[in-house]
Amino acid sequence: MPRPPAPAAHVVVLGGGLAGTLAAAALAPHAGGVTVVERDRLPDAPEPRRGLPQARHAHLFWSGGARAVEALLPGTHELWERHGARHIPIPQGMISYSPAGWFRRWHDERSHHYAIAARRDLTDWVVRTRLTQAFGHVEFRTDRTPVALLGDSRRVRGLEVRDAGGRPETLEAALVVDATGRAAVGGRLLAVLGAPPVPVTRVDAGVAYASRLYRAPEGARAGWPVVNIQADPTTGEPAGLATVVPTETGDWLVSLSGTRGRHPTGDVAAFEEFARALRHPLAADLVRRATPVGAVALTRSTPNIRRHYDRAATPAGFLAVGDAATACNPVYAHGMSSAARSALALRRVADELGVTDERFARRAQKAVAREAAAAWTLATGQDLFFPGVEAPAPPGFAARAAGRYVTALMNAAIGDHHVVQRFTDVMTLEKPATRLATPRMVLAALRGPRLPKLDGPALTPDEQAVLDSVRRTDPHPK
To answer: CA 282, 283, 286 angle in degrees (round to 5)?
Structure first.
């Protein structure tokens, strides 16, 4: 059971995005008050906001993360689905082309894996709504910019902020949580206090990605699967990939990505061309049959960056979560799920110690790092092998051996239901990566697929009918 909140315990969370909102949910039962400080003005509906440009790209909430959200804020799933978010069973709700070939869409009544598919604006708004419904002592202070941490190099005791008019405000707190995403302003604020630098590991495959919203064709606006054309890191050539995610409105959000030397652009006319030049043209064929809505959104903010707060001499009363601690290449779609699992780990430590304990921040930071390790390993384990990657060192023997093993498992997975289930355990963050190293999995990697490769994507008759429909005569309407 959670400890009763200490009367004077006040928590300040920097950042009102998903990681910050979930951190507030994790800590609220242990605080007399929680203040979430956000530079933006947060919308009262699932609408875009200035400080979340990544909302224009495709997102998935894997079941390992979605279950963590539900544990923190019961009722979130029901509210997501009430507003149209798609509950997609995995693997039967996914058409995926791996480096080894097409995955089968195994149907297993016992399978519990799924993904929540919706535009990011809806995902965040629902979580923020559930937070304020569940905890009346959580307050959002918007249009506020963090200026300085209060305290010294041994103990953080609060935060100074300025509002949009430049007026200062002091927020005393037993704990300050940095959830400012890749901007990670906490490191700069700590330096002013005299805290030592935080070690950083960076792995950058130079990935850029471009996304565009499409109105799905008739017959594809309900029940459409996620489509994923994966990159192949084993070729030694610049690689590209595509993801088509159905949204709550029945539209498709299409994201294209490419490593250094093969970048998509914001050019509308080049969008379909890039998709058609990938390892398989399925995404391009779908785009050709859909109607574009709006412009192409482009970003290059994709490096894997790990700030090792768990190993740093960080002052008591401060910790970092989400992308402020571990930011992974977003094309692997683990950011939201990793943040949710980290928040649940934060709750467990708070249940044990309470937030005013001098040991809390350090213990919680280590717990957050352990949860983020899975997403980091999955992302860097692939990005390290793309040409031109910027990393502390080339892949060593262990990394190369692990890469060969995963390649063998992927080959087995296209025709082995057990291997697919174990891969899905790890991909959805339901289970740790050690799930892939059991004797049965090693044997499967050595044996290879039990069934022959598929000749093409495993489409249902209705899905094939969409592909067989008449193509748009003008692929780039104004």
So the answer is: 90
Q: pLDDT band at 340, cuts 50/70/90?
A: very high
Instruction: Taking residues 308-313, report their average pLDDT.
Output: 95
Give 115-124 pLDDT, tens digit per residue.
999 999 999 9
Residue 39 has phi, psi (to 5 degrees) of: -70, -30
Token pair of 171, please? 């927020």
> What is the arithmetic mean of pLDDT over 196-205?
96
pLDDT at 202 over 80: yes
Element containing residue 215 per DSSP (H, E): strand 208-215
Return d(Cα 137, Cα 100) in angstroms, integer: 51
Q: To which residue do tokens 């994923």 refer?
A: 228
Q: Copy the structure tokens of residue 445.
A: 């990697």
pLDDT value for 50: 85
Q: Which pLDDT score is estimated for 2?
A: 55
Residues 6+ apart with CB under 8 A from 437: none
How far is Cα 296 from Cα 211, in angstroms, rounded to an integer? 6
Cα radius of gyration rounded to whole Å, the chain: 22
96: nearest Cα among 86, 85, 88, 87: 88
Q: What is the spatial distance between Cα 299 and Cα 192, in angstroms, rounded to a whole number?
A: 31
Q: Which residues fall within 8 angstroms of residue 168, CB to CB, at 6 or more apart?
A: 147, 160, 161, 162
pLDDT of residue 477 exceeding 50, the answer is: no
| Gap between the Cα atoms of 388 and 238, Å rounded | 9
Of 331, 50, 349, the residue nearest 177 (C-alpha): 349
**116 φ, ψ (degrees, to nearest 5):** -95, 120
Residues 6 or more apart from 99 whose CB is under 8 A from it? 230, 231, 232, 233, 234, 407, 410
**What H or E segment, with its residue span, contains residue 147?**
strand 145-151
Give one DSSP letter per residue of 274-308, joined into a string.
HHHTSSS-HHHHHHHTSEEEEEEEEE----EEEE-
Distance CA 169, CA 81 (A): 39
SS3 194: coil
As a whole number, mean pLDDT of residues 187-209 equals 95
Give the DSSP letter of residue 27: H
Contact 284, 228 (CB under 8 A): no
The two structure tokens encoding residue 331: 């094309």
pLDDT(108) > 70: yes
Residue 451: pLDDT over 60: yes
- Measured in whole angstroms, the distance separating CA 211 from the mean position of its chain's CA atoms is 16
